[in-house]
Design a protein that fits this description.
Helices cover about 35% and strands about 20% of the residues. The longest helix has 19 residues, at about 140-155. It contains 15 helices and 20 strands. The strands form four sheets. Strands 7, 8, 9, 10, 11, 14, 15, 16 and 18 form a nine-stranded mixed beta sheet that branches.
Length: about 475
């Protein structure tokens, strides 16, 4: 995409094209102030002030832009995103007020994933749309959130051959170098002793996609310790319980939890949050080979619990179990994990809403409030103790997948809960990491869902 540093700039009185915002209720009164030719131009473009409508209005030898919004006095992240995607290249400013939260959508609307596209030499290069703001102090924070959001999109959109475990490690290494963090990686057969479930799930992959447990630590040693964990299943065939073709089509996105974790960690470090950060990513490919783990196998875990494999396609919770155990051992007061974990969450909530599970009501409430404040809503689902019996095994401490199909998102969360240390504040976000259809500011494909909510909660909790 276009360099983000060019897309929003402080307003120092430089030349810019005016943008006026209007809603349907105020449209008639606003239009009465225009000339006949200007009203005709709006009519020709069928502009009535509805949300996301855009128009260009002649103004002597010049012109101005107009956008339809729900409420000109209460802007959202997305209300100017359609303008950012459709206006001609140039520099713009609001006729009145400041963009506020709409700066974020202005940036993300201009995201393009073009890694694999060839460009005809004769085709024009699309220019950027720059938005000025008098509230220059907000620019660094908005830039950081937009950059983190687009990092999730880039990572999830990249095909599995180019986004295997080694690529996730490379991304973590890039962040470690950028922010002077410490990176530790346990790879291949070395996982068998310390992270046996990560090893079991990933051992069937090709050597170039060998499994690994990626850990990054940053911040002052005496700061409150938080852990961010992300499911890094870089491609999920389903294992020996193989998925059908339709179920495998989007499985490049099964590392979406890791993408969210990397992006949230980048925000923590970029914005210098006063915490001791521990990022953990179990990165694997759930492949099929002669040494793949099997239905009926009993796996040892880092925590010492044994797990009977009732479904090799419920592998994400296995690798997360070992990572959550490690995060708990190292003394985190708060653990957040992100995972594209269950289809059950999508059946219940659809693609837009991450399912939120939390041990502490106050933490869940804070995260939900932060999501509402940043146009990144989540929905809380229950950690219902009565369903723990569904994970009982006849031969091991637990099964990895409950039979019967009931409460699939909850039983998956309850599985993870067994691997989180006692009395640790823990949040699990079952996110889709994908947008099936584009919306203003939100492109089709990889999507950051729950990222801004989690960041907003962390920032308020640790910065106040």
């Amino acid at each position: 995409m276009t360099d983000k540093d060019e897309l929003i700039q402080p307003d120092r009185g430089q030349d810019a094209i005016s943008i006026q915002l209007v809603d349907t209720d105020g449209f008639d009164d606003w239009a009465k102030k225009l000339s006949g030719p200007q009203r005709n131009a709006l009519a020709a473009q069928k502009f009535t002030g509805k949300g996301y409508q855009t128009a260009i209005v002649p103004d002597g030898d010049n012109w101005f832009a107009v956008g339809g919004v729900a409420n000109p006095d209460d802007l959202s992240s997305w209300c100017m995103a359609k303008l950012a995607a459709t206006l001609p290249a140039g520099t713009y400013r609001l006729a009145s007020g400041t963009p506020g939260p709409a700066l974020f959508g202005w940036l993300t609307a201009q995201y393009r994933f073009d890694r694999y596209r060839s460009r005809d030499e004769d085709s024009p290069v699309e220019g950027s749309r720059v938005l000025l703001t008098k509230d220059a102090a907000t620019i660094p924070a908005v830039m950081a959130e937009a950059e983190a959001t687009m990092l999730v999109r880039d990572l999830v959109n990249t095909p599995a051959e180019d986004m295997g475990p080694e690529a996730l490690e490379a991304e973590a290494n890039r962040l470690a170098k950028q922010f002077s963090a410490h990176l530790t990686v346990t790879r291949g057969d070395a996982l068998e002793k310390g992270f046996p479930m990560v090893h079991a799930v990933g051992r069937a992959a090709a050597r170039s996609h060998a499994p690994r447990l990626i850990e990054l630590e940053w911040g002052k040693a005496d700061a409150p310790r938080i852990a961010i964990v992300g499911k890094g299943v870089c491609f999920d065939s389903g294992g020996l319980d193989i998925k059908p073709t339709s179920g495998m089509a989007l499985m490049k996105k099964d590392m979406g939890g890791a993408a969210h974790a990397l992006a949230l960690a980048s925000l923590v470090m970029e914005r210098n949050l006063p915490v001791r950060l521990h990022l953990l990513i179990p990165a694997v490919e759930n492949a099929i080979a002669g040494n793949a783990f099997r239905p009926g196998d009993v796996l040892k875990s880092r925590k010492g619990l044994t797990v009977e494999v009732t479904n090799t396609d419920a592998e994400g919770r296995l690798v997360l179990g070992d990572a959550l155990t490690k995060a708990s051992e190292d003394g985190a007061e708060l653990i957040l994990d992100f995972a594209t974990l269950t289809g059950a969450a999508r059946v219940a909530l659809g693609p837009d809403l991450p399912g939120l599970f939390a041990r502490e009501d106050a933490t869940a409430d804070a995260l939900l409030a932060a999501g509402d404040a940043t146009d990144d809503p989540c929905w809380r689902l229950p950690l219902h103790d009565g369903y723990r019996d569904m994970l009982k095994s006849d031969i091991a401490d637990m099964v990895n997948s409950a039979s019967g199909g009931f409460a699939g998102a909850t039983t998956a969360a309850l599985f993870l809960d067994r691997f989180v240390g006692d009395k640790i504040d823990w949040v699990h976000l079952d996110t889709f990491a994908w947008r099936p259809a584009a919306k203003p500011g939100r492109s089709k494909g990889g999507a950051a869902l729950g990222l801004r909510a989690a960041w907003g909660m962390l920032e308020k909790r640790y910065r106040g």
